[in-house]
Amino acid sequence: MTYFASDSIGWNPASTDRILLAGDEAALPTIRTIVATLAANARGHIFIEVASDAEVGRIDAPGRFSISWLVRDRGQQLQRSVDAWLSEMLPVSGVEDHTVYAWIAGSGSARVLSSN
Length: 116
Description:
The chain is about 20% helix and about 30% strand. It has a single domain (about 20-115), classed as Rossmann fold. The two termini are about 15 Å apart. A hairpin with a 6-residue loop joins strand 4 and strand 5. It is α/β, with parallel strands linked by helices. It has helices at about 30-35, 80-90; strands at about 20-25, 45-50, 65-70, 100-105, 110-115.
């Protein structure tokens, strides 16, 4: 599944249900900068893929955010985790339309993904 096509972040989460941030250790500075701009009531998930347990750290995010550190040494993969999370957050058979504002490092600008 391809999420983005352009080369800039273009950050503007507006009125989406949830925010998704994902990247590897190289994207940590950008993710930390984005998180610092989030409203206190923002909700979402952050996935960070690192090489080993030694690289797992701390990210100060709003209280309604979950953070998953994925460790390559353990076989955990960013793409697989993001795909699973999105399939749960954007059900295609649901009655309501759900939206996620997503930025995945290396995949271009952030954009709105919808279950509709």
